[in-house]
Write a structure and sequence with these properties.
Elements: E1 8-12, H1 15-25, E2 29-31, E3 40-44, E4 54-60, H2 67-73, E5 90-93, H3 97-107, E6 112-116, E7 121-127, E8 133-139, H4 140-152
Parallel strand pairs: 1-4, 5-8
Antiparallel strand pairs: 2-3, 3-4, 6-7, 7-8
Length: 153
């Protein structure tokens, strides 16, 4: 058997803020989504005409009419809609550490920065609007190049 990760889904009470986080900050692209009986967005990393590129599925909760969502995916209590819970975090490999740090600063988002011993990775940990932890992994070479630039200036 061969497996590959297809996507992760976020059930949210704030559809707009969640979409904005993943599109504006991480650069995913809003694209086609099946006509489900509940609001949402599919966010793509790569061409939007290939549905398997939809890495993040955002599921909106319509408080006025939740029957479509409840019938399709089941009901969840509001208390279950915050944070990563047992799923500690989701992670992406990324490039352009300097650009990301600039976007984070402009958006007023604080990242927790870490270096992974022995792997040559520099990590940023962020919280999305739902409290889900998102990890961005950068080559340690990018961090060193950025550190060299900031120590010169």
């Amino acid at each position: 058997m061969k497996l590959s990760l297809n996507h992760f889904s976020i059930r949210t009470l704030d559809l707009a803020a969640t979409k904005n986080f993943y599109v504006s900050l991480l650069g995913l692209e809003d694209g086609p989504r099946p006509e489900f009986p509940f609001p949402g967005h599919w966010l793509y990393q790569g061409p939007t005409d290939i549905y398997t590129n939809a890495a993040v599925h955002i599921i909106g909760i319509d408080r006025e009419d939740s029957a479509g969502l409840n019938n399709y995916l089941g009901d969840r209590a509001d208390s279950q809609l915050k944070g990563s819970g047992a799923l500690d975090h989701v992670a992406f490999f990324a490039t352009d550490l300097a650009g990301m740090l600039d976007r984070l600063s402009k958006m007023g988002i604080e990242a927790r920065r870490r270096d992974v011993p022995g792997l040559g990775l520099h990590q940023l940990f962020l919280d999305d609007p739902n409290g889900i932890v998102v990890e961005l992994n950068y080559s340690f070479d990018e961090k060193q190049a950025l550190d060299a630039l900031t120590s010169v200036g």
